[in-house]
Every structure is written in C-alpha cells, then in structure tokens.
Amino acid sequence: MRLTPCNVHFTAQPDRVVYISNALYKNLNLSGNKSVQLRFGKGRIPATVKPIKKAGRHLYLASGVRNAIRVPKAGTIYLKNEDGVVHLGPLIGVLSDGQGSSASPFGSRTGFIKQLLKAGSKQFYIFAFTPKDINWQTEKVMGYFLNENGTFTKKSVPLPDVVYNRLPSRRYDFAPSTNQLRERFIRRKIPFFNWSFFNKSDIYRMLEREATVARYIPEYHVNPGRELIQEMLERHQMVYYKPSAGSLGKGIYRLSTLPQRGYYARFRKNKSNALLRFSSFNSLYRMLQGRLGSSMRGYVVQQGIRLIEIDGCPIDFRFHMHKNGSNKWVVVGIGAKKSGRGSVTTHIKNGGSLLTPERALSRSFGDRSGEVLEKAKRAAITLAEAIERQHPHLIGELGFDLGIDQSEKIWMFEANSKPGRSIFQHPSLRAEGKASIDHILEHCLYLSKFRRREET
Q1: Of the given ranges (165-179, 335-349, 412-426), which has the lowest mean pLDDT?
Q2: Which residues are paired to 393 by β-bridges?
Q3: Does residue 300 sit in the same domain as residue 324?
Q4: Model confidence over 249-268: pLDDT tens digits?
Q5: I want to staple 129 with a disulfide (CB 3.0 to 4.6 A). Which of 91, 133, 210, 399 is the partner?
Q6: Residue 413 is part of a domain; what is its CATH number?
Q7: Whose CA is closest to 249, among 112, 427, 422, 426?
C-alpha cells in the first residue's frame, strides 16, 4: 500500500465515474481496472474508472460519485489503494460540544478548533462536530468545516477515519450517552482519542503498577479517613487534600502543621485565598466535614512537597505531551507556573503567573538549569509511556504537572488527558502552541493509516 498525493476536482456529469490521470492511474496500480471501490471515511461506493491524458496526479469525481460519498470540497488530498479499495482522505473529526452561536459554535473552544481546522485543511479533510450531529442509522455526520474566509459551513459527510475527542467537561465525558457514542465508534473500528478525562485515583493506581515511575509519585491515599489524614500530616508536615475528579485547582486544600503552633488550611474561598489556623487536628477536620460533607468520599490525600520557589512562591511545571507521526511521545511545550501569594495552587486564575522554564530553573539551579530541564523531560516521557501501557484506550495527548524540589528530585502531581492550552499564550511559547497543533494532526494521520512517504 502506497500513499499518493493528488489533486481532486469535481465535474458536473451525473454518472458514478472517476476520471484518473495516467500518472495517478499508474501510481495506484490500477492498470486494466474498469471499476473501483472508492472509500471516503467510512463511506464506500463502486464507481467506473476512466483514465485521462493529463500531466500530474489528478482525480476528477463526477457529481454522481461526489454526492453519493459526500466529498465536501476539491483540493489536494491523499489516496491509497488498499486491496483494491481506493481510499480518499483521510477524513478527521474533532468531537466537542456546541453551546455557542453560529459564529462561535463551540463556545470558548472555537478558537482552538479553528486553528486545528485551518492547519489540517491544508493536508486532508477535517471537521468538527458534536454528538447530536451524528446520524447512526445513515452513518453520516453533519460536520462543521472551515471556509477560506474563516467562517463555518455545515456539510454532511460519512463517519470519519479518526476522532479526536475534545469534549470539554466531565459532565459530557462521563454521560451514559457519551459512553455509548465511544463504543459505537470502536465497534466500527474508528480510532478514538483521547478517551476521557482522568480521575486522580485511576492515574495513581495505574502508575503504582509501573516500577519505572514509582520514584516520581508522592505518597497518596484514595478516600482517606480521619486517622490517615492526620497520620500523613504528622509525617510530612504538609499534604494536599483534593477531589479525585477535580480540575482547575477547584476544591483543593493545603493542610500543614507546625510544632507548637497548630494546624493550618489554605484553600480558595469566594474567589480569594483563605488561610485558617486551628489549635487541634480535630477542629481542622470538622471544618473539612462542614465544607465538604459527603463529597469527602471522592477525595485523595497527597504528600506535600517543598518545591523550588521564586520570591517565596512555589513553582511547578506544565509539560504538554503529544504522540507524533511515528507514534512516539514527545515534549512539545513546557510552562513554569508560579503560584500567587497565598494561593494553594499555581493556576493563573488563582493569581498565578506563567514563566518560561529556563527562567524559572535558572533562579534555583543556575548553570545546571539546562541539565535539570532535560532530566525532567526524560521523566515526562517515561511517565507518558507508563500511563499508555496501563490505559485500556488510545491516548495521544497528555498534560503533566511536575514539581522539582531543591535537591533536583522530580515529582508528578497531576496527569491530564485533555490538557488546557493556557501555557501557549505566553509570547515565548507561541511556536510551541503551533507545534502542538501540528503534532495532533500528525498523530491523526498516523491513526488513519495515511502515512506520508518521500517522493522519488
């Protein structure tokens, strides 16, 4: 099977005829064929083949073919002949939800989706869609394609070759209807990544089975009782108490104790940072019970780490990871996040700020900062490989929140299957943001089995 670029054109003839230039006819090994099975996404039709004398690689689709198989536009695309079936594409679908206007159909995610579609449309067919846009009976999708002027147009196309999942929230991702949707794609052998949001407890359980990464994981316990939280606090002097299914730093408490001074709890309250002191652990625990109630059953307790700091504020690092076109994990972008004064987390919405990793590390490690950064990159790749080995479904993108302490030890605090893209807003990380888009598209090509090859 060879991958061949070609130019697709449309003709007005109503017949199901495919006109193929001689060079393309030969390149696809179609010599002598009078008909062909033409596939686009999961759609497939028979068509008559007629070679034409024209220089270069050109494919002309009569309107009978175009309308039957729903090819959305002309342009440069890839072809492959696989066991006598000529596959046109690939056709890539980006899954999100649609709560916005016609100009911004995917709400706050519209800008990112436009970036994906603009870059991907130069290489293949790519569209965005929501669960309600799928007709499972006809196996068609009413997808959002991007016009040259940057506006959206909706077109009906077959089910895609690959689905990139960017459903924006756990509410959507874990709904029974979404579980059914995923299974329907898998039954049709359509690669679907990333499967869903992670729970912290699931990630911890996966990684504790991997000896290669045990040294990066702080001590943690799922659904801890009162005694265990107190024991962890006495042993480490600082712990994080956080929801297993949380995100964006919501619901996190940093608990600490100082000899002869009592117990402390830092948390976010009414859009500001709160610090409370308690004379005993019992009073601290009663506060948690009062604020959280039954939701405490969904919490984990994690060992606190004294991280490197700038101006007395802890620093951690967001590593944005991607699978590349060769199915290998690579670090695409790194942002250093400095916590706001008195904040429990380094999230920018909680008063944090974003720096380049080089600037952040040079303050703590000087000339050794480059070596420390390379060590952290290797750790991130090892962690990604470990999660992939343990996860039952396709993963093509990960975000890690890593910390580094004063002794250069690396710690992993969070793993996200759908990482946010805020680090790419930093002026020094915009090139990495473009590289992130490119890696998503390259991995879609890999999963679709449309591989580029060097022309000879």
Answers
A1: 335-349
A2: none
A3: no
A4: 688 999 999 988 899 999 98
A5: 133
A6: 3.30.470.20
A7: 422
300 pLDDT above the threshold of 70 = yes
Tell me which of 40, 73, 89 is where a domain ends.
89
* 183 and 223 assigned to the same domain: no
Q: Are residues 188 and 241 in the same domain?
A: no
Helix axis angle, 430-448 to 110-120, nearest 10°:
60
Looking at the fold, whether 368 and 432 belong to one and the same domain comes out as: yes
Whether residues 389 and 316 share a domain: the answer is: yes
As given in the structure block, the two tokens for residue 389 are 């080995």
Per DSSP, 325 falls in state: T
Decide if 167 contacts 178 (C-beta within 8 A). Answer: yes
On whether both 327 and 360 belong to a single domain, the answer is yes
Q: Which amino acid is at 389?
A: R
d(CA 2, CA 173): 37
Total structural domains within the chain: 4
Name the residue type at position 350: N
CB within 8 Å of 362: residues ≥ 6 apart: 369
Q: How far is CA 303 from the centre of its chain?
A: 27
Residue corresponding to tokens 């067919």: 125
